[in-house]
Design goal:
Elements (H helix, E strand, L loop, with lengths): L1 H36 L15 H23 L1 H4 L3 H16 L8 H13 L34 H10 L4 H30 L3 H9 L2 H9 L4 H16 L3 H12 L6 H13 L3 H21 L6 H6 L9 H15 L6 H25 L4 H19 L12 H6 L3 H13 L8 H5 L4 H30 L16 H4 L4 H6 L9
Helix pairs in contact: 1-2, 4-7, 4-8, 4-9, 5-6, 6-7, 7-8, 7-10, 10-11, 11-12, 11-13, 12-17, 15-16, 16-17, 19-21
């Protein structure tokens, strides 16, 4: 019977995946290659006036087929029961194929190369200079006129690609993508290793993370730099599992030196060490981290401004429900003959939601007591950050949540994250003409935001209502995927996972 199900589900799924990847390869090639060959920035296939609507539609069809195979596999996991060896080889194949795609939904990888060229070619700090100060053949690929908003941890990778770009821009793009591919493989291995001690089926955790179409498209195909942030966060968790609290603090700091969202990893680990009264590890970790930061900031002049540079990207609303909220508030005030400037509405929005988000974070940090609860509470905070607080959200941000979806002991939380990883691609589904030139553009914009963010919020709430009202007490305490109840009979939940569970309506499990 298992072999019969493998033939019925696995083989057709592989055929669909291969056809979709070949199609997506051609789509990305058609979108990006002509512009790159002409020394121009390719149009963002997800949202650009120059993007081809037909290619945009075909990309969404390919993504839909990827998620269909992904979802069917999760739904039939017990019947498929793949071996670790099969998963490893499949993850390697899927990762390499995804990395072969040219970036099409974002030109950020070209900006990374630009930052690297400032360091490797012109020997100036990308934190103190912008590419607009230089004129060369690569300048036409750079559109940002801002200092580098990322931490110095990723600058060596950018510098290597910048050096290579002196001769081959295409090779430079794939140098970065190759590094991200290797990091993706390491991240998948870390998820598997961590899951061995906190999850009943590490293979399931590996599949949830390594095969998710969002992380394959955004990190490996489009070349976004979220892999290193995930890497150091997972390394910090592994260090905690092995009793290396001081090392975990230092690794979490490195995560924050990729993108500032890594600060949640740092704060969560600090909260855990305080809760467990591991003062020596905490003091040693913070002291060593401060010393390392002093060295990093001296080697990379201006890198201490990373937080300030990142904060400028949160001074407006774009692709979030706050855009609709502020726009609707402005319209309502005008109907009441009251005029508020956008900046005033934005400040009020930030004031209200900052207070709410700080309260949520304070509550979640207070509930961290072990590794299992650390992963769960960090997932909840980041989910609240992206869906409830962030004034601007891009699809690749959701990749931050995928390792937590793989490792969390909360089935509803996992399902909500996976639904978000699907729905957020609604941001790529609507052509530019519909959103900017159509007489019904406000309707289309609203539908786009509701599809991307309203759907997962509604799903999250429905999961909480259903679990809170109908799930038996024992079911809410198991530390295994709730899609696979039979795992409980074969693999009892880890003791530390059971101890960390509690009745909590916000947890939704």
């Amino acid at each position: 019977m298992p072999g019969h199900w493998l033939r019925r589900l696995l083989l057709p799924g592989i055929v669909v995946l291969l056809l979709s990847y070949v199609s997506l390869f051609v789509i990305h090639l058609r979108n990006s290659l002509p512009s790159l060959a002409a020394d121009l920035v390719p149009p963002d296939l997800g949202y650009s006036a120059a993007a081809n609507p037909a290619l945009q539609l075909l990309q969404m069809i390919c993504l839909a087929s990827f998620f269909a195979v992904y979802g069917i596999t999760l739904w039939n996991w017990r019947r498929l029961d793949p071996s670790p060896r099969t998963l490893v080889w499949s993850a390697g194949l899927v990762g390499v194929v995804a990395s072969s795609l040219l970036p099409a939904d974002s030109s950020d990888v070209l900006e990374y190369i630009g930052f690297g060229r400032l360091a490797a070619v012109y020997h100036v700090s990308p934190y103190l200079h912008t590419y607009s100060e230089f004129t060369d053949r690569f300048a036409s690929y750079v559109t940002w006129d801002d200092p580098m908003p990322y931490g110095p941890v990723v600058l060596p990778v950018f510098a290597l690609a910048g050096f290579v770009s002196e001769r081959h821009v295409f090779v430079a793009i794939y140098v970065i993508k190759l590094v991200w591919l290797l990091i993706h493989f390491v991240n998948a291995w870390l998820v598997y290793q961590i899951a061995k001690s906190i999850a009943p089926d590490p293979r399931y955790a590996l599949f949830v993370f390594a095969f998710n179409p969002l992380i394959l498209l955004e990190q490996l195909a489009n070349g976004h730099n979220d892999g290193p942030l995930i890497l150091f966060g997972l390394l910090a968790v592994l260090a905690l599992q092995r009793g290396r609290g001081a090392l975990a603090v230092s690794l979490a700091v490195l995560s924050a030196l990729v993108k500032t969202s890594g600060l949640f990893w740092f704060a969560g680990i600090v909260a855990l060490l305080i809760r467990q009264r591991r003062w020596r590890s905490l003091i040693l970790g913070i002291t060593s981290s401060l010393a390392a930061l002093a060295g990093v900031f001296s080697v990379f002049p201006g890198s201490a401004t990373q937080l300030a540079v990142m904060s400028t990207q949160w001074q407006y609303t774009e692709d979030s429900l706050h855009a609709a909220l502020i726009g609707g508030s402005g319209t309502l005030l005008r109907m009441l003959n009251r005029t508020w400037e956008y900046d005033d509405l934005f400040r009020v929005d930030r004031l209200i939601f900052s207070a709410l988000f700080i309260g949520v974070c304070a509550r979640r940090f207070a509930l961290i007591r072990d590794v299992v609860s650390l992963i769960r509470e960090l997932a909840l905070m980041l989910l609240a950050l992206l869906l409830g607080y962030a004034s601007s959200l891009y699809p690749w941000y959701v990749a931050w949540l995928l390792p937590m979806a793989a490792l969390t002991d909360s089935g509803p939380l996992r399902r909500t994250i996976l639904v978000l990883s699907v729905s957020v691609f609604a941001l790529y589904a609507f052509p530019y003409t519909m959103l900017e030139e159509s007489p019904h553009r406000m309707v289309w914009r609203g539908m786009r935001l509701v599809a991307a963010f309203g759907v997962p919020i509604g799903f999250w709430i429905s999961q909480g209502i259903r679990e809170w009202g109908s799930t038996p007490a024992f079911a809410t305490s198991r530390a295994c995927p709730q899609e696979m109840p039979e795992l409980l009979r074969v693999h009892p939940p880890p003791e530390d996972a059971l101890e960390s569970r509690r009745t909590d309506p916000f947890l939704l499990s």
